[in-house]
Description:
Elements: H1 2-20, E1 42-46, E2 49-53, E3 62-70, E4 78-83, E5 87-90, E6 99-107, E7 119-121, E8 126-133, E9 143-145, E10 150-152, E11 161-166, E12 171-176, E13 182-188, E14 208-210, E15 215-220, E16 226-238, E17 241-251
Antiparallel strand pairs: 1-2, 2-5, 3-4, 3-6, 6-7, 8-17, 9-10, 9-11, 11-12, 12-14, 13-15, 15-16, 16-17
Amino acid sequence: MRKIFFRLVFLLGLSFIFIGCEEKVYLFKPDHTPPSVPKGLYSITADEAVWLFWDENDEDDFAEYLVYKAKEEDEYYKRIARTKTASFTDNNVKNGKTYFYAVSAVDYDGNESDLSDETYDTPRPEGFDEIIQDYQRFPRTSGYDFSEEQVVSYDDEDADIYLDYDEDYKVYFLCVRDKYTDIQDFGYTDDLDDVNVSPETGWSELGWVEVIPGHSYIIWTRDNHFAKLRVKGFVRCYNSRCYGIAFDWAHQVDEGNPELAPRPPHRDDYLRMAVKR
């Protein structure tokens, strides 16, 4: 009887020991689901730089984005950056050369999404606070040559545009140098980068447009390049009369595709003034 009692006590003690040592086991199912493909990828052209932007990923397990780049349209992409923000600036570029980009998303388990839709861009030179003046008073500093990035005379054979003041209307006009150059008023912009792509339509039927501070203007040059400028304001003012404008500019050194947009029709009186070549 005594042996039976001790055996019962011993077995009871073992049961408490096993109960006390019991551990909870959690089973985790591996995550093989990649995050959503990034959407809304677009670029802004800059001087020796390309700015990339896209929609943010708001998934709980999102970790980072991978940025890919190709130098040819059919070339394999090469990863160039990792970033946690929905933007990236590529400074490893050359003006006048086209680059192709795509972005993917990665989660904390290392799953990578497919690549986003592709975007491409061609960096170009730009300048700030340039000044040209009324050709009737200051002919030698009234024109601008975008290809050489310099102020020239209104009748310089390489001038793309020049500035003219109309005494009767008290208005400044931006005028093209010859009938092979086109111009349009893009309208008000907050800054130069608001104009990212040259529109296919909207070109002036005349070879001149009124100068309005805060407006941006697009020029299609005779050698099939595109340029833009934004007028910051009037300058060189004396006795309630201003003699020039200040502007920021950018010029695409990569020759434009002639299929981008056909040249607009020109009227017989297209040029404000015939400039001898």
